[in-house]
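TL;DR need structure tokens for one chain.
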Amino acid sequence: MKILQFAIFPYIQKQYQSMFKPVIEKYAMTQVEIDVLAFLYNNPEYKYAQDIVKIRGINKGHASIAIDKLVEKGLLQRIPDPNCRRCNLLLLTEQAQPMIKDIITVQHHYKQQLYQHISKEERKIFDQVLYQMYINLGGYHDER
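>> reply
TL;DR here they are.
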């Protein structure tokens, strides 16, 4: 079997995004807005727009627009960082919780489907190899 490596990851990403169509329609949101909410919820140690750009890999302009829209909708709050005047902390609001619940439900279903027939050991090895590939290509490495 010939494996078309460059076709695999875009296909997986496309399938992930297609699973969010009902959430997008229900809340009149974009995929980037959903990705920002999901990132902030799933990674509470990250609270800055630059984290979304560096770690999640969302284009800076798209992230900025999504953050602005989420703030306007009352789903995200910008709070000045007391340690850095130039930075704002991004915090999810209580109003975002129903959307977060739906996003997490979709992510859970996606992971169940994605990892079916793959053992925990195989998944661990895959995650390690994928992370090393990411680092090899210059991906963001957090030393925390």
